[in-house]
Write a structure and sequence with these properties.
8 helices; Rossmann fold; four-stranded antiparallel sheet; transferase; 2 domains; six-stranded parallel sheet; binds zinc ion
Length: about 375
């Protein structure tokens, strides 16, 4: 193993930082394997269940996969891609962590698919879920489908009724043509190729850095495991991808961004004046609706239930809604404050958040956007 504190390691990483910063900028790409996700608690070898269609119980690893957050190496690559130091990242991991870390889909090749992604074969819409789409299939709908990739969910694009499919490449299947073609193109154009956390044994993945090397690219291999290409690497660093990323980013004078998963929601109310009824004191009475809604109608599947606590004059004053729409309509006088408690049920975060909302009966009502940080820190 490389000693990260040695002067030699430091010098190698400093020269890589200079290489990345050179003007004009070199075309650099990265290939990643299982080793980049190991520190996220993921063992990429333990996913045979993704390639079955049976209702097998969830393995313990499943829990780690949905809860896993991107590592320092993932976050560093995302930052470098975002700032144009890396033009492309390809991975043979199916854990979706590169996409989760923020690498733009246009710069990303998930060669074997992404367990969180399902796509519509008709209109090409992509649905990136918080849950593993291969494990959470709609089995009732699947009974009529012979397609092993079908997830049993339907496309929600207006006018499209396509049946969604997972993106995973099964053992006996070949890689999707556009994905592998793009990866090869990127390899052939690259001047610098980083290979992180892969033993570079599985074909055709291992052929990509070879193709790049043969075209004159500099090959940098990072990871503690021995690889098939160690003999031809220009720089070989036998250290963890995380430690390498930390040292490289430091050498570049850049901070590694912190991972955060935020979901915007809208909290607010609408209202309308109630027509006065003869013989009743109906002055300033309104029919109002207080709500918690997803941004742009996105599903609120990270909310378990919502409690609305009204003024004590209402009976009952505490109303709990256990499924969407999280909207409550009443008639009364205002303004008064409603306490809204949102109970979260996300993999990353449970617990509750309470908001105070003042019911206002002016204009169309009152609403505000709130960012829920599901990473919970
Ligand atoms: Zn569709």
């Amino acid at each position: 193993m490389e000693d990260p504190n040695s002067a030699e390691t430091y010098a190698k990483i400093k020269s890589l930082a200079e290489l990345l910063s050179s003007t004009p900028r070199k075309r650099a790409i990265a290939f990643t394997g299982a080793g980049i996700s190991a520190s996220a608690g993921i063992n990429e070898q333990e996913f045979p269940e993704h390639f079955e269609t049976t209702t097998a119980p969830l393995p313990t690893n499943q829990f780690a996969l949905e809860q896993a957050i991107p590592t320092q190496a993932h976050m560093s690559l995302a930052k470098l891609a975002d700032e144009g130091y890396l033009s492309y990242v390809a991975t043979c991991n199916i854990d979706g962590l590169h996409r989760r870390s923020g690498v733009q889909p246009a710069r990303l090749g998930e060669l074997y698919g992404n367990v969180f992604l399902e796509t519509c074969p008709k209109c090409r819409a992509e649905y990136l879920r918080d849950y593993d789409v291969a494990m959470h299939r709609n089995r009732a709908a699947l009974a009529e489908l012979a397609d092993v990739h079908a997830t049993g969910r339907q496309c929600t694009t207006p006018g499209c009724d396509g049946m969604l499919r997972d993106t995973l490449v099964r053992n006996e299947e070949t890689l999707a043509e556009p994905v592998i073609t793009r990866a090869l193109q990127e390899a052939l154009q690259a001047e610098v190729v980083f290979c992180l956390g892969s033993n570079l044994e599985s074909s055709p993945f291992c052929e990509l850095p070879v193709a790049a090397k043969e075209r004159g690219a500099q090959l940098i291999i990072v990871g503690p495991e021995r690889t098939m290409l160690d003999g031809v690497a220009d720089v070989r660093l036998r250290m963890s991808p995380d430690r390498f990323a930390e040292m490289l980013m430091k050498s570049l004078g850049k901070a590694i961004p912190k991972f955060a998963l935020r979901k915007p929601i809208w909290i607010g109310n609408t209202h309308e004046m109630v027509t006065p009824e003869k013989g009743f004191d109906t002055e300033n009475r309104h029919k109002w609706t207080v709500f918690v809604r997803g941004d742009n109608n996105s599903p609120l599947n990270f909310i378990d239930r919502v409690e609305f606590r009204l003024a004590p004059s209402f009976d009952p004053a505490l109303i709990v809604l256990e499924e969407p729409p999280f909207e409550l309509t009443r008639v009364g006088r205002g303004p008064f404050e409603v306490l809204i408690t949102i109970h979260l049920t996300h993999n990353f975060r449970r617990g509750s958040l309470t908001f105070r909302h003042m019911l206002l009966f002016q204009d169309i009502g009152e609403q505000k956007c709130v960012q829920i940080d599901l990473t919970g820190v």
